[in-house]
């Protein structure tokens, strides 16, 4: 039940992490990468591997996040548009933003990090071993790489939910509706398309015709309880945990990985930079995960073919 407890404690954890102090002299010095052979030995014995992934994995495929320095769509960042309030105020603008993000994904592809995770899952499943991806990414690149056991805790760009009847389904239409065709340009001088709400994506269930929204978790919204319960089970039962491309100060890695580490289970962090939690983890591998992960997850000499 660790995740449930932590839902309330996430803010506290973030506070605690902010208090972590490295010994003098360590602050400017990245933690050196761990011994890969030592990690590989643990990897070869693990039967239930949880892989938590975040924006860094998508960034290596060139997927924009619209957060942080320079991360703008028109005049806004994700936190301005990815909210229920923004959607009820201006559903046309929010749909333009998501339409753009969906269309951008047609030009992006899984990178070696996604592919090595998917390959590892398939290979280990033949040995009776499990790999589960818990991702905060909404771009479906893990799915496209071939991963099967995926918990998309923040939803997907390619799912819709009806705000009237609640029906949720996959949607890969391009454009998602006629009125959005050619809309969504990110340039700051672009004017809102101001699409009438009746012409935005609508529910196709008989007699409903409600307005659809992207089935993603927006700022201020709670996670899907079923997905959270499943993530909880995976984290409670894993005997090895990887944290890939996500800072361990922000949700969800701040909740998940340090608790797995506290259970005495080895955690390996793969990231471009150190995080305040880096020193809590047994392993840390520095660099682009498209480079570090394929080496880490390649077949081990002890694996039965
Ligand atoms: Zn509906």
TrEMBL record:
Please tell me where NAD(+) binds in this chain.
54-73, 136-139, 245-247, 271-273, 289
What general EC class does the enzyme of this chain belong to? Answer: transferase
The chemistry this enzyme catalyses reads: N(6)-malonyl-L-lysyl-[protein] + NAD(+) + H2O = 2''-O-malonyl-ADP-D-ribose + nicotinamide + L-lysyl-[protein]; N(6)-glutaryl-L-lysyl-[protein] + NAD(+) + H2O = 2''-O-glutaryl-ADP-D-ribose + nicotinamide + L-lysyl-[protein]; N(6)-succinyl-L-lysyl-[protein] + NAD(+) + H2O = 2''-O-succinyl-ADP-D-ribose + nicotinamide + L-lysyl-[protein]
Indicate the residues that form the catalytic site.
154 (proton acceptor)
Would the keyword Cell division turn up in this protein's UniProt record?
Answer: no
What keyword terms does UniProt attach to this protein?
Cytoplasm, Metal-binding, Mitochondrion, NAD, Nucleus, Transferase, Transit peptide, Zinc
Quote the cofactor binding remark: Binds 1 zinc ion per subunit.
Tell me the first and last residues of the signal peptide.
none
Please state every residue range assigned to the domain named Deacetylase sirtuin-type. 29-303
List GO molecular-function terms, semicolon-separated.
histone deacetylase activity, NAD-dependent; NAD+ binding; protein-malonyllysine demalonylase activity; protein-succinyllysine desuccinylase activity; zinc ion binding
In terms of superkingdom, the source organism counts as: Eukaryota
Q: Which cell locations does it reside in?
A: Cytoplasm, Cytosol; Mitochondrion; Nucleus
How are the domains described in the entry? In contrast to class I sirtuins, class III sirtuins have only weak deacetylase activity. Difference in substrate specificity is probably due to a larger hydrophobic pocket with 2 residues (Tyr-98 and Arg-101) that bind to malonylated and succinylated substrates and define the specificity.
Instruction: Give the family from UniProt.
Output: Belongs to the sirtuin family. Class III subfamily.
Q: What is this protein called?
A: NAD-dependent protein deacylase sirtuin-5, mitochondrial
**Provenance organism:** Parambassis ranga
Recite the lineage of the species. Eukaryota, Metazoa, Chordata, Craniata, Vertebrata
Q: Which gene encodes it?
A: LOC114435138
